Amino acid sequence: MSGLIGELKRRNVFRVAIAYLALGWVIVQVTDVAVPALNLPEWVPSLVFFLGLIGFPVALLFAWAFELTPDGLKRSEDVLPEDSVTSNTGRLLEHLSLGLLAIALGFVVWDAYLSSPSDEAPPAAARISEITESADAPPLQASIAVLPFEDMSPAKDQEYFSDGISEEILNLLAKTEKLRVAARTSSFAFKGTNADVKDIATKLDVGNVLEGSVRKSGNTLRITAQLIDGDSGYHIWSETYDRELKDVFSMQDEISGAILGALKFHLLGEQAHAAADTTNMDAYNAFLIGRSRLNQRTREDVLVAQEKFQEAVRLDPDFAPAHSLLAATWIFLGDQWETDSSDRLSPEEVEREAIPALEKALALNPESADAYAIRGLLHTQRYRFKEAGADLDMAIALNPSHALAYLWRSELRFEERNYLAMLADKEQAYALDPMSLEISEGLARDYRNFWRPEDADRIADRMEQLHPGSLPARRTSIQNLTSLGRYAEALPLLKAATKAYPDNERMRSYYAWSFDFLGLQDEALAFGLPDLSMEVHLVRNEPEAARAILEATTPEDERYNAVLWQGMQLEYWHGDNDSLARVVAAYTQELERRGEPWQERCHFDLIQYYRKLGQGDRTEQMMARCRDETVGMLEAGYLCPCSWFNLVLVAILDGQTDEAVRQAHEWLDKGDSYYGVEIQPIFAELKDHPEFPTLLRRNADQIARQQRIYKAQGKGSDNS
């Protein structure tokens, strides 16, 4: 044995082993650093270690069998003892080993004490953001946007399948804790734009972007997915899946699950699985088309979406998501739609169609976040706030990335007079879906009311940048001006919006009333709106002309409720108590028909009318609500100039005339005005106060200033 060991030493086998191990250690350390830096696949370090491991016995065998001589490499048995230079080679190997060990030690010291935390983690882990917490939102870490997969098939016939793959992955990711997922409407807004991935990540405020493609060749589908770092634009992970085109839904389910598992491994170190909602390809295609059209929110698109969802549930009655979104179409065709009221469904029609669809969806999938969120919206619109809160909370618990659930829940926060929580919900919705016009418009409205006009303008500018010329973007810019009393500057924008959307009656009405707010009554009358015409006649003290409009209007007229509102003011000033009582009764019956619990809500003028009728005891709940709302708004800072006037009305109704005058001066200080304020039934109670003429003069001066600005713009009206 001693002879063998001696021969191993003479042939430098031990020295070769030490040198090999030292060199291997250095290579492993270098590989660990180089792989993430060069964005190499994660299996490279394992391959390097494996090759080094199998090379070790080969190196030892080589050292035993061969000897390095001045004449080159020779077999050991061919070298005479007196010609051997193994001692020199041994010293060289010792020096090499020491040098390699020094390098390895340097790596260890650098890794342990000198490297920064960002150098220790691979890029995928570095994208995980610091956990943020709020009272209503779960902790959020990694963030991702799932872009619509591109259809690269020669026939371009796989678009909806491509969208479906993307949507399935997005929906599964959205249910993942600690992962913030950009909403579908935001991600899909970049479809077909060829935008830079880093720009997309910046606009959606995400750290990672998933993109991919689908290519059909014969009976084979090739699906490619790529996870990209949003800051650097470098690929973190990619994979290609080739599948035979047989069971499309099983294939989609399998691939979505595989991609999801890979993403969660790279982002969160977790695993996941997918569950298919339907196995009927025709139903699924109809659903995808319907969902795409529903997101547009125009009446025409919602009607098409409704037809597609009805087709989907006819083809597959157990397709839960189609039932949920079918219910949403009924709701949007009711209170959420923005055209003539004659086109809107009645509350009874909405509930008759929407509730069974939602019940079916939840029976099929008791954990459907969409169904809970949509039912919560329906409850909110029917003033069933307790039920709405339970449903919306459940939707968010099931899907912490459900942006619309946060938006719709914010309306409940308003009803609770919890204005700061309301804003927090809207900001959370915007963070999840910054491309959504509906969410952006709602957040801008809150920023206006919180007296944050710069933030409201920022949202409006971004809406216009992302959706040029869209009605919500135009409307937001207009309301940002009118909320500050800047009607003259808003009128050109209103004119342009009305021309761009001539069939939108709400925008046309807004345009018409803005002329009235500026005191341009002839221009206002030219629009022919009955309620606006009554307002002009009342300011001009022409009660008979106003009464003729009231008597000619029937419940079938689209502006019937607005005419009744003006009719109450008409009878308050120019009628007797019996005629006032009749119009008040008709108006409150309309509120009841809509399901509004009006006795529990704040209606300033109704309080005044009931007091004149000697029925002030009927207004106690309304008055308490008005006090709570205005005090809560004042404490939260939720009062823009346009709503400051409410403080004046509350003070008058409470008999605090001096306080009302003080608030009226402050309201005017903020730049707002009210043409015809002298006939406003509550404000007119100040007529005996010494400051009343001053208030009227200040109000008239502000209106005159706005008229000068309007005329200086050289803008003529177009009332057609």
From TrEMBL:
PROSITE patterns attached to this UniProt entry: TPR
Keyword Transmembrane helix: yes
Keywords: Membrane, Repeat, TPR repeat, Transmembrane, Transmembrane helix
Residue ranges crossing the lipid bilayer per the database entry: 12-31, 43-66, 96-114
Repeat positions for TPR: 369-402
Superkingdom: Bacteria
PANTHER family named among the record's database cross-references: TETRATRICOPEPTIDE REPEAT PROTEIN 6, UDP-N-ACETYLGLUCOSAMINE--PEPTIDE N-ACETYLGLUCOSAMINYLTRANSFERASE SPINDLY-RELATED
Name assigned to this protein: Tetratricopeptide repeat protein
